[in-house]
Design goal:
Blueprint: H1 9-23, H2 31-43, E1 50-51, E2 59-60, E3 68-73, H3 75-83, E4 95-102, E5 105-115, E6 118-125, E7 130-134, H4 137-143
Antiparallel strand pairs: 1-3, 2-3, 3-4, 4-5, 5-6, 6-7
Amino acid sequence: MPSSFRCSSAAILACAAALCAGCGDDGNQDADGARALLARVQADGYRSWDRAPGWEERRASSGAHAKAVDIFVNDRVAEALATQPERAALPAGSVIVKDGYDGDDFRLTAIMEKRNDGWYWAEYSAAGDPSFSGHPNVCLNCHRTGNDFVRAF
């Protein structure tokens, strides 16, 4: 192999580290906003909302959030799905809440809220502490494959 194509493992690691440094940890961009969102959906009694289509009860999940999930949708989502089942996009004001469990142990809550500028994501520990909020790349990259960034239904 020509010397111009040879790389030492140290050089490869240095390149990888430089590339990853540009990514940064953008996971918790808006912790205060995330706390306010969680308080709002809890005050609204989100566990009494409609269940997402296909998620009428807790079921196993192969997604990143937990081994089993309950998914709830607010009235905006329920109305949009009832009137436009082949929807292109959900309207602003749509909220989807996912509670994640490992067995019977509650592990996390994840929330998507459709705003005028797109989806806002937040994920919380079982204690309610935000670990992701705003528009984190980890959320965007995974949900990009969904219909209007919604993957569950």
